[in-house]
Amino acid sequence: MFKLSKKVAVVTGASRGIGRSMAETYARAGAHVICVSRNEDALNVVADGIKSNGGSASVIAINVSNLEEFQNLIKDTTDTYGSVDILVNNAGITRDTLIVRMSEEDWDTVIDVNLKGAFNGIKAVTRTMMKQRFGRIINISSVVGLTGNAGQVNYAASKAGLIGLTKATAKEIGSRGITVNCIAPGYIATDMTGQMDDKAKDLLISQIPLGRIGSPDDIAATALFLASDEAGYITGQTFTVDGGMVMI
Predict the structure, then answer these.
(1) Using alpha carbons only, what angle is made at residue 75 by residues 72 and 77, rounded to the nearest 5 degrees?
(2) Where are the domains of the chain?
(3) Residue 41, C-beta contacts closer than 8 angstroms, at least 6 positions apart
(4) In this predicted model, what pLDDT tens digit does every residue of 187-244 receive, in sequence order?
(5) Which residues 6+ apart lie within 8 Å of 32 measured at CB?
């Protein structure tokens, strides 16, 4: 089950954290993975690790907020490998501060990467997937997009926007055999949570019914399922992977 043999997957934000784990998981399942971010050196480390473990991967460094760069990525991938079967829009950034202090630049930068970047990816890949009459698009949102969070109005807005983008796109292109789904991670052990002190971590864990912070592999496992043939009758959905912290 959940095999991706002969599939071609594009994963943005693949240089670290959740994106890296998804790229590695897809490669283990048999996909060729295009690892995407702005940091080519970090991407090469990820791709080399995948290949050393018997997987297949390549690297393309782009700014996802630039539509032309994303379109060129999809064209180059299709020309080289014949298809793009899976797109994971995972690239994301934060610029946290209270709204009274937030600059227009802080707002625009987060929206451009987190939300416009996903729009660019979907727009770039849709015609290819429609011609194939097959595709899996997975957008990585956040529980913050469902609940809001003080000091993160830009991030919360971008992640809530991804949920709406997912639903609308799923309705538009479902008839062509393309599914579009969303994953909303809770608190995951990444660079951000690694900077928290023990007291803050303990307070956070007390709010999670399963009693632990999640791992990137928890998100990757859900992304693998949604990319698989077994998830072919699921579209327009948002899956919270958060240890039970947000129940809706």
Answers:
(1) 105
(2) 8-188+215-241
(3) none
(4) 998 776 666 778 878 888 999 999 999 999 999 999 999 999 999 999 999 999 999 9
(5) 7, 8, 9, 56, 57, 58, 81
Residue-wise pLDDT for 72-106, tens only, equals 999 999 999 999 999 999 999 999 999 999 999 99
Round to whole Å and give the CA distance between 57 and 29. Answer: 12
Active site annotation includes 187: no
Q: Which of 26, 81, 155, 187 is catalytic?
A: 155
Residues 6+ apart with CB under 8 A from 147: 246
Q: Which two tokens mark 121? A: 């990816």
For the chain, strand residue ranges (E) read: 8-12, 32-37, 56-61, 86-89, 135-140, 178-185, 238-241
Cα–Cα dist 27/6, whole Å: 10
Contact status, residue 12 vs residue 90, Cβ threshold 8 Å = yes
Quick one: angle between helices 40-52 and 17-28, nearest 10? Answer: 30
What is the C-alpha end-to-end distance of the chain, expressed in Å? 29
The hierarchical CATH code for the domain 8-188+215-241 is 3.40.50.720
Question: Would you give the DSSP letter of residue 31?
Answer: -
pTM of the model: 0.95
